[in-house]
Amino acid sequence: MVNYRYLGNSGLKVSEITYGNWVTHGSQVDDSAAIATVHAALDAGITTFDTADVYANTAAEEVLGKALSGQRRESLEIFTKVYFPTGPQGPNDTGLSRKHIFESINGSLKRLGTDYVDLYQAHRFDYETPLEETFQAFADVVRQGKALYIGVSEWTAEQLREGHALAKSYGVQLISNQPQYSALWRVIEGKVVPASEELGISQIVWSPMAQGVLSGKYLPGQPVPEGSRATDDKSGARFIQGFLRDDVLEAVQRLKPVAEQAGLSMPQLAIAWVLQNKNVASALVGASRPEQLAETVKASGVVLDADTLAAIDTALGDVVFSDPEDTYTVSPKTRIV
To answer: Would you identify the family this protein belongs to, as annotated (predicted)?
Structure first.
């Protein structure tokens, strides 16, 4: 079964493995398969579920709501996000304005079939809205009982500091950040993680398997497998392109004996690696088939010894992305419409 960790400086516990439905529900797989996979996650001990209103243009939230219908609400941790455009994508259908936040939380709750979410997250930083407006709106969402805690996604260290101070001034808790993080993509380690540790903010990391590259199924010098994420624009193909260089794929193949020595599969090794970071509360995983989760959850509770961690670093060598400056390039400078 899955272990639990506290989320930030709060009393909220989340499962070390969070089920996320970014590229699956409402687009990649049909609803019956999606619902079966959510039920498999529950059977495996996963109680934390992450989605966003923008996923499949709100359809992913609807599918997750159907899948969790009938479950004891108090036994679940349900997260969603706001920022990206939804609906007809009018001028106010995006960003972190008070208008968009309130319209978005009301829509998300209806689609999810719940009175509240445990964590409401700013999906990106909004350079076009005063931060005071955003956090006043978030504070009001919390006071109305529509969300219990506030989080963000892909914010820089400086943005986290400013947001945390504002949240505190409004009497609410900013307890999490949701960045990309894996053994190949370590850009948060330089600035974001130290700032988060100081502020009492945890990471809920997405793409712990580097878009599937750390599974080892992408081979250097070979075409990408048919039906893989790299061939499907709806499944985030553009996110994987930077990892599909031959030098990266060759380095990943050198991880196979490391995983074997540790008694783990390649996906388990990748997920266990991110969970060695004490600032990581949970690793986000997705699945298109129920059986994929049976092995994934075995990464929870795994302790990688110093020799294994060193072997991973040696195998990956200089293909690791670790420049902290990359954290400043994620949030768009203008709203996406």
So the answer is: Belongs to the shaker potassium channel beta subunit family.
